[in-house]
Amino acid sequence: MATVTNWIDHLSAKEVAGAVYPGAGSSETLLVLLGIVIWVGWHVITNNSESNELSRLARKRHGANDHKSNITDW
Fold first, then answer.
1. CB neighbour list of residue 11: distance below 8 Å, 6 or more residues apart
2. Structure pTM?
């Protein structure tokens, strides 16, 4: 088993070529893209569900003082 005594020489060697760990640059790109897709998808789903909930509540046409009568789903 080889030991590294000088990291600067080790990282600049031709065998390493800038890759400190296996899969550098390939799997991270896919994970970042997957994360962005999930993030945007979560926002779209949340927006749709909140819009549906608000339109459902708007159809009930609550008055300004209805909260005093303890109406559910206010």
1. 18, 20
2. 0.52
